[in-house]
Design the sequence.
């Protein structure tokens, strides 16, 4: 699915699983016939003369004026979920609209600013705008699940209720091809969620970029020295949290001559092949060359709270000699300092 009019939709925000193959109608409708629509109307029960009638509520059909699609009008696609990527926020669906609830005004301010940024970056035209309301022009969605391009207009509002802040995203106008019509509940629920996911994904991107910037600042002050692990074996000790060092190692190792081949954050391992840098590199960093073979080494990072251990093993899984670890310490320290 994509959003046209120069608006490229991230796969994270709009990826929809289709359980069926074939045309758009087949992907939206049940794969069986609709013979149940020809079921005769229910008739009142006529008891036999002299018999005692007993009714069990287990099988009682609810009475009321119910509305909704039947037959090929029923959309069998799974509901579109809103990605909960805003820390501390609670997502609520209200009659097809998306409500983002937040505890503090500064959090709501940031979400509102993110919405404005997302609209501008994706070239969504705005019909009306003020400090607490944004109304967009037509936004066109193109999807393999739909027989024709769909267009929608959105309204974003912000406010406060019961001591909490909220940002509401609502689909207010709907058009299929050139036919403008009132949006159904399914339309509102599905395509409000897709637009909301663009917002939450953009917010998540800001959060991750900010975390990376903070990690870059912290890594400048990482003292690196020799130490021992819990078993008493020699390891390199970086006085930095695990997440901070992990984020920086892919930038530090290549400058030391290591070509990264594989990373596994959950296991804390980085596999990289060593190729000795030229003499100019060693002169620049001001340390003696490391006498490592041109093989694949595994860097094992261990989380020690506010510190991180770094152990290095060769291609056979054997720890490198303590002297080689000691030689790595000043090089690692020099690379960290270089990124200040």
Sequence:
């Amino acid at each position: 699915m994509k959003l046209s009019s120069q608006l490229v939709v991230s796969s994270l925000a709009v990826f929809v699983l289709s359980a069926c193959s074939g045309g758009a109608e087949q992907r939206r409708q049940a794969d069986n016939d609709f013979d149940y629509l020809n079921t005769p109307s229910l008739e009142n029960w006529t008891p036999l003369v002299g018999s005692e009638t007993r009714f069990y509520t287990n099988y009682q059909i609810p009475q009321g004026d119910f509305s909704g699609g039947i037959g090929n009008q029923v959309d069998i696609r799974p509901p579109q979920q809103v990605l909960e990527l805003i820390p501390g926020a609670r997502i609520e669906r209200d009659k097809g609209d998306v409500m983002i609830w937040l505890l503090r005004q500064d959090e709501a301010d940031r979400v509102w600013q993110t919405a404005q940024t997302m609209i501008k970056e994706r070239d969504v035209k705005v019909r009306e705008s003020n400090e607490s309301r944004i109304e967009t022009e037509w936004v066109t969605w193109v999807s393999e699940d739909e027989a024709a391009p769909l267009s929608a207009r959105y309204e974003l509002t912000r406010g406060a209720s019961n001591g909490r802040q909220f940002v509401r995203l609502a689909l207010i106008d709907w058009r299929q091809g050139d036919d403008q019509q009132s949006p159904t509940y399914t339309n509102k629920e599905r395509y409000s969620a897709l637009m909301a996911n663009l917002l939450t994904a953009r917010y998540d991107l800001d959060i991750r970029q900010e975390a990376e910037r903070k990690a870059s600042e912290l890594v400048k002050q990482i003292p690196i020295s020799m130490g021992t692990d819990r078993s008493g074996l020699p390891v390199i000790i970086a006085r930095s949290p695990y997440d901070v060092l992990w984020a920086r190692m892919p930038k530090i190792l290549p400058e030391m001559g290591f070509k990264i081949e594989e990373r596994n954050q959950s296991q804390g391992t980085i596999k990289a092949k060593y190729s000795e840098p030229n003499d100019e590199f060693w002169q620049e960093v001001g340390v003696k060359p490391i006498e490592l073979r041109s093989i694949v080494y595994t860097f094992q990072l261990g989380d020690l709270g506010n510190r991180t251990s770094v152990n290095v093993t060769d291609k056979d899984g054997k720890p490198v000699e303590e002297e080689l670890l000691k030689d790595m310490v000043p090089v690692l320290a020099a690379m960290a300092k270089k990124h200040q």
